[in-house]
Design a protein that fits this description.
The protein has 10 helices and 8 strands. The chain folds into 2 domains: about 80 residues, Phosphorylase Kinase, domain 1, CATH 3.30.200.20; about 190 residues, Transferase(Phosphotransferase) domain 1 (Transferase(Phosphotransferase), domain 1). The strands form 2 sheets. The chain has a 5-stranded antiparallel beta sheet with strand order 1-2-3-5-4, sandwiched between helices. It is globular. It has about 280 residues and is α+β, with helices and mostly antiparallel strands.
Length: about 280
């Protein structure tokens, strides 16, 4: 057994079968109700530790139901975060698209959207930014609640990010953040704002619902660079029309997405979601 995994199991008293977290992970495991990871290089250690510290602090302050822990063995570290039941927003919506026109799908998705914006507002009110709001980091729990997972870019006055913030998943990045990425060098820290994360959740909702990238129809390839994608995000010139990309018409959900993914942050609002209208 990996000595770092053994140390985690011993420290936490975890008992249960050990299996790889995914077929692609060599030092990440699912053990009982825990997700355990290990690292020995500085580049890998920093985000693992930050993720675990963020979860532990959120848990201690009643803002996240799962616990987080970490420890060190020699030059290596292990982290453990309690497993949360549910499906990612991407997976939930993929099933929803396949099930349409089931009568409850549209109403449930509107509810999930409102829950997500309310949860995000709760984090922001407590001084937190998640840092990587995207479909794979949004968990739809049993009962259609919302939790955010993977806090390696999380920021709070009591837990500063130990490396420069350079955005999360590109296609869910707010236009103003994308512009800063274009204008600054890689070592420059980019301040994150509440309204930028409102955009990221709105973009993630659209992306998951439609199955299409929210800010541009182009993908990185021989003729399209990552810089081109960032420029598309800032200008909206290649944003696909929502009435064409949506799997079914829903004026309420479309209005919510439109109001939260405006290119201009001054015009961006989640008020409709938080008011339940």
């Amino acid at each position: 057994m990996d000595p770092l995994l053994a140390a985690a199991l011993d420290t936490l008293g975890i008992v249960g079968p050990v299996r790889p977290l995914t077929p692609h992970h060599s030092r990440a495991w699912r053990v009982g109700d825990w997700k355990v990871k290990a690292a020995t290089t500085a580049a890998d250690i920093a985000p693992l530790i930050h993720d675990a510290r963020a979860v532990a602090l959120l848990h201690a302050r009643g803002l996240y139901p799962g616990a987080g822990a970490y420890g060190q063995v020699g030059d290596g570290v292990w982290t453990a975060i309690e497993w949360r039941a549910g499906s990612t927003l991407w997976d939930w919506c993929r099933v929803a698209r396949d099930r349409y026109p089931a009568d409850d799908v549209a109403a449930r998705l509107r509810h999930i959207g409102r829950q997500g914006f309310a949860r995000l507002a709760e984090l922001h009110a407590a001084g937190w930014h998640h840092g990587d709001i995207q479909p794979a980091n949004i968990l739809v729990t049993p009962g259609d609640g919302i939790e955010f997972i993977d806090y390696d870019f999380a920021q709070h006055p009591d837990l500063p990010l130990p490396y420069p913030y350079r955005g999360g998943m590109d296609h869910a990045t707010a236009p103003e953040i994308a512009q800063r990425l274009l204008d600054t060098r890689p070592e420059v820290h980019i301040p994150l704002t509440d309204v930028a994360e409102v955009y990221s959740f709105g973009a993630s909702l659209r992306w998951s619902w439609t199955g299409c990238t929210p800010a541009t129809t182009r993908t990185i390839g021989p003729a399209v660079t990552p810089t081109d994608i960032l420029k598309d995000i800032t200008t909206g010139h290649h944003r696909g029309p929502l009435p064409i990309e949506r799997p079914w018409p829903d004026p309420i959900l479309e209005a919510l997405i439109a109001s939260t993914t405006s290119l201009d942050p001054a015009d961006r609002t989640a008020t409709a979601a938080l008011d339940g209208t």
